[in-house]
Design a protein that fits this description.
Length: 186
């Protein structure tokens, strides 16, 4: 939450709202239950099956909250940073999921039924490699030391460097030829 607030400030967001809910209520994932986060896996292991770090329906929930707020403020665009190229196989990061949710959004809202607003979900990162994402962030002037992707941070908040997310992040920075400010501190 702190990283999101810092990035929002850095990018000049007009407003940041926090909707409090806790997916630990349901569990079912290494990120929401007492299940060990996999460490030291190679890319072939990451590429098979849906890992225990998949949080059931997470992006459905995030998009549902965004959709509710979009309808309140009469916005027609939702943005989400899902990625279907260098990722861990999460079903809710695929273009098919996004298309289905967008279709549902236009069927399930007052604005959609009345035809006053057509909801569009934008996924600018969906077909980019992690290296492409790093390069784009650098080109846009994003302060990458504010970003965070670790699934199992150390007690002081630094990334573990060993979970799938850290491994994929490191690979993206290396392929982009950019030093990762989170790992260069070590």
């Amino acid at each position: 939450m702190e990283a999101a607030a810092n990035i929002s400030r850095q990018l000049g967001a007009q407003e940041q709202r926090v909707a409090k809910f806790d997916l630990r209520t349901f569990g079912g994932s290494a990120l929401t239950s007492d299940i060990a986060v996999p460490k030291d896996r190679d890319e072939s292991e990451m590429g098979t099956g849906i890992p225990v770090t998949y949080v059931p329906a997470r992006n459905t929930i995030f998009l549902s909250f965004a959709l509710a707020y979009a309808e309140v403020v009469a916005a027609s665009s939702l943005f989400i940073g899902v990625n279907a190229v260098d990722y861990s196989g999460y079903p809710d990061c695929r273009p098919e999921f996004i298309a289905a949710f967008e279709n549902m959004a236009n069927l399930a809202t007052k604005a959609g039924v009345e035809g006053t607003t057509k909801i569009r979900i934008h996924t600018p990162l969906i077909q980019m490699t992690k290296a492409d994402i790093v390069r784009k962030a650098v080109a846009l002037g994003v302060d990458l030391k504010l970003t965070h992707s670790c699934y199992d941070p150390l007690p002081d908040g630094r990334p573990c460097g060993r979970c799938d997310s850290c491994v994929l992040r490191r690979k993206g920075f290396e392929e982009a030829g950019v030093a990762d400010p989170l790992f260069s501190k070590r």
